[in-house]
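Please, does this match?
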Amino acid sequence: MPPETAASTAQPATVETITFDAADGHPLEGTLTAGAGDGPLALISAATAVKRGFYQKFAESLVTEHGFRAALTYDYRGTGGSQSDRFKPRHISMSDWAMRDFPAALTRLEQSAPGHQVVGIGQSFGGQALGLSGVSGRFERYLMVATISGYWRNIGGGWKAFASMNLIASPVAAVLGRVPAGLGLGSGLPGGAFADWTKWCRRPDYFFSEPRFDAKSLYAEVRTPILAIGATDDPWGTPAARDGIMRHYINAPVETRWLDPQAAGGPIGHLDFFRSRFRDTLWPEPVAWLKGEKRS
């Protein structure tokens, strides 16, 4: 008999667009993919300027192929489907994404199957958000993909990024109140969040000296096991950039790993871990870790 494939053992799932509110009333939009499996619930938090749809194939794989009960992707406020005329883009802080939107999405996910174990997956800012959220204790495990400090001198091609953000996008944001798609910075950003990002990327300690919140103390509260993975061909994700974030998770058990694009079968870069072409090469080990299974 031929070996079983993921397609032949796939379980059915429902995919639903949902809306829910953050604690301050900002409406958020997400996609809830749910099945009948006994596995954990998974919250998937995006990188900066990446819409939730980018993660849908991964979310569906968790539910249909790996037995997760449900997976939720969502757009941060001011991006994708999470926009509101009542909240001006200039007044949206990047910290709102971590401290308001992230906890609201977690609560909505938990409501889909009360009492189920919850794990998290965060790409880039989605990994930074765990430390700022104040709700890390509700996760059994947390997978971080390409999570780095954005300090421009530590990232590959830093001068190019610095010029793009400060000399091109910043003047546009000052006039429009937001950064539109097409400027080389992803799918667009609200002006306030972009101003935070630009400011933090100029600082060697990123947001760890931000006066509006005590990031060092918040990160020290995290005790959730973390697996932080990065690709050796990620132009931004240098060892120094990754250490700029991970060294602040001082009380969490952190395991780090580098992914080899040659072994994976193609370029990975900063974002492409979640491309479905890596379903059989890059996804299985981290997913097994999220489920608490032993790796070979």
Observations:
- The chain has one domain: 14-151+213-290.
- The first strand starts at residue 14 and ends at 21.
